[in-house]
C-alpha cells in the first residue's frame, strides 16, 4: 500500500477484567455431558480469566481452561439439555 507505515495498524487488546463476584464464587447448576444429571456447584474464575473451577457439595473441585468452552447460555436460552438420539 502506498504511504502505509509499518506497525501503524498493530492490534491492541484490552486487559481482561474479571468481576469480583465470579472471582469469589457464584452458585451454578452443572449439567454432565453424558447424562441428565445436574449438580449444584460453586463456580469461580481465576483473576486472569483463564480458568474456570468449580466445587461441588462433596468438596470435589474440577478445572476447565476457558479456551475449551464450546457453549454457554443464560436467561431464556438456558433450558434443560435434551437427550440426543441417533437414528440408523
TrEMBL record:
**Pfam families reported in the protein's UniProt record:** PH_14
The record's section on InterPro entries has: PLC-beta_PH
Indicate the segments forming the PLC-beta PH domain, all copies.
17-86
Q: Which domain of life is it from?
A: Eukaryota
Protein name in the entry: PLC-beta PH domain-containing protein
The organism's lineage is: Eukaryota, Metazoa, Chordata, Craniata, Vertebrata
